[in-house]
Design goal:
The protein is mainly beta and about 80 residues long. Helix content is about 0%, strand content about 30%.
């Protein structure tokens, strides 16, 4: 599995709303993308959790306090989730 989580799917859950981002390394020929999943939350000031489906298929949920910040997530440090 790549150390930079290329291929992971990151979902931010805020009440009934969910935002999804895929971690990719490039979107077109000879390009490079920022591997951080960036979420524009608008006026939202809190989120319920962040769920990551890692490239190997495992899922973990992370509690995140605050917004407007970079939050590093490390595989094995979240709460293991079942299903898809």
């Amino acid at each position: 599995m790549p150390r930079d989580a290329t291929g992971a799917v990151v979902t931010v859950e805020m009440g009934a709303q969910q935002l999804r981002r895929d971690v990719v390394s490039g979107a077109s020929y000879c390009s490079q993308s920022d591997r951080r999943a960036h979420f524009g939350l608008g006026q939202t000031t809190t989120i319920d959790r962040v769920v990551v489906r890692w490239p190997d298929g495992t899922r973990e949920a992370f509690g995140v306090t605050g917004v407007d910040r970079i939050v590093p997530l490390k595989k094995g440090e979240g709460e293991r989730q079942k299903g898809q």
